[in-house]
Amino acid sequence: MKSDKVLDAKGLACPMPIVRTKKAINDLEAGQILEIHATDKGAKNDLAAWAKSGGHELLTDVEEDGVLKFWIKKG
């Protein structure tokens, strides 16, 4: 999936992936897509809840070799 920006949050523990995601998405325009790479297993639930509460859309997420990848469309 094409993204407008990639955020590397690998190795960061909660709540840092959310903190970094929030900062990164602020740099995007509405409709642009942020791709996040994280290794914290809690990020899956955290990012889904954060996106929904912030008016953003979690398009999809996958796990590849222990790295969780998320694509969030800015609302």
Low-confidence stretches: none
Strand order of the largest sheet: 1-2-4-3
The portion of residues assigned to helices is 25-40%
Total number of beta strands? 4
The end-to-end distance, rounded to whole angstroms, is 18 Å
Strand content: 25-35%
Instruction: Give the CATH class.
Output: Alpha Beta
Could you report the average pLDDT, rounded to the nearest whole number?
97
**What is the H-and-E element order?**
EHEHEE
C-alpha Rg (nearest Å): 11 Å
Task: Indicate how many domains the architecture comprises.
Answer: 1
CATH architecture: 2-Layer Sandwich
Give the CATH superfamily: TusA-like domain
Supply the helix-strand structural class: alpha+beta
Number of helices: 2
Please outline the major beta sheet: 4 strands, mixed
Family: Belongs to the sulfur carrier protein TusA family.
Protein name: UPF0033 domain-containing protein
Domain UPF0033: 7-31
InterPro entries: TusA-like (IPR001455), TusA-like_sf (IPR036868)
Describe the structure.
With 75 residues, the chain is an alpha+beta fold. The chain has one domain (5-73): TusA-like domain (Translation Initiation Factor IF3, 2-Layer Sandwich). It is 29% helix and 35% strand. It is built from 2 helices and 4 strands, in the order E-H-E-H-E-E. It has helices spanning 16-26, 43-53; strands at residues 5-9, 33-38, 57-64, 67-73. Strands 1-2-4-3 form a 4-stranded mixed sheet, with helices on one face. Strand 3 and strand 4 (67-73) form a beta hairpin. The longest helix has 11 residues, at 16-26. The model has no long low-confidence stretch (mean pLDDT 97).
